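Check my protein:
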Amino acid sequence: MHSIRALLPVFALLAAPLAAQVQFRADLNGAQEVPPVNTDAKGWGEFTLNADDSISYTVRTYGLVGTAAHIHMGAPGVNGSILFTLAGGPSDWEGRTVPLTAGEVADLRAGNMYVNVHTSAHPNGAIRGQLEARPLRFGARLNGRQEVPPVSTNAMGVASFEVNPDQSITYDVRTSGLSATAAHIHTGKFGTNGGILFTLQGGPTEWTGRTAPMTNAEFTMLQENGLYVNVHTNANPNGEIRGQIVSSGVRYGYACPWNNGSAELFLNGAPYAGETIQVNIRDGVPNGKGMLVASLKDVAVERHGCGQLIGHDFRRTTVQLNRTGNATFPMDLPMLPGSVDVYIQFGGRDNTGAWYSTNGVCVPIVAF
C-alpha cells in the first residue's frame, strides 16, 4: 500500500475548503497554433469561472520567454481576436479578468476560447491551448453513513462517472450487501437531501448506462460536489447507501516521451480524506522503475529535458512497472480537517538512460 499520510501535519496546516466554482483547463503546445509551430515549449493553464462571471487564471510555461499571453475567442483550429490580455510573464501569468458577457460565458462553455502565448520568434503565438471544462472524471464511495439521517448497514458500493462531450454522464455503480429497488443521481451537497436528477438503469446490485445531457447549471453542481448517488431498498426506501460524487483527479500538462512511447498517469475512485484512491500508470518502460512524486504546488519547468509539472516534492514513492510498462495500486489519503489539492507526477529513465515522465494529475482530496 502506498501512502502520503506521512505529511499529515503539513496537510493539516494547509487544508481549507476548496472554492465552489466552475473549472477549466488548457494544455499548451505549438501543434495547436494555426499554422502549427515547431517548438519544444509547452505549458498548462487553469481557469475558474467565478460567480460574477470573471475568470481567475494561472498559466505556466517552459521552454520559452513569452512577450505576451492572451485569452482569445476561437474554436480549435481557428484563429480569433484577443478577449483578455493576461498579467505576468515571461513564463507565468496569474490574475483575474473583468466579467464576461452572457455570450462570452456561452462561448467559454462551448469550448470556443483559447489561451495563446507569444514570443519574439513567434509574435502570432508560439504555444496555444483550448480552454476545456475539467474535471470530467468523477467517483463516489457509497455507505450508510452518508445517508441523511445515517443508516446502519454493512452494504457498500463504488461508482465511477465520466462526462461526455454533450454533457451526458456515463456511469458505473456497483454495490454489495443489498438488493436494491432503485438507484438515482440526486442534487444536494454532503449532509443534505435533494431531488432526483437521473434514474439509473440496472439493479439490483449494479447499474451502468448513460444519462440525458446535463444543463450547464447541473454540470456546475457536479463540479462543485453538489450531486450524490443514492441506492434505495425495501428496508430503506429513502436510501440505504449514498456517496457524494467528487472529482477523480484532473489531468494537466504533457508527458515527456521515452524512446518507445509516452506514459500516462490517471486516477480512479473518489479521493475522500482518510480513504484510498487507485493510481494508474500506463505505457511506461516495461519492467522499469520510477518515482511517483507528490507536491502541494503545481509548476511548469524544464528538468532533465522533460517538463516538471509539480513543485518541490514532499513525498516520493518508488513504483515498479510490470512487463507491459503498467502499474495499478491503491494510495492512502490522509484524514484532514479541510479539503486540499495535491499534485502528482510519475517519472523514470528509459532503456537508454534518458529521463521520461507522465502528465501531471491534480488530486482534490475532499474532507466532508
Summary: Confidence is low (pLDDT under 50) at residues 6-20. The first strand starts at residue 2 and ends at 3. The chain is about 5% helix and 45% strand.
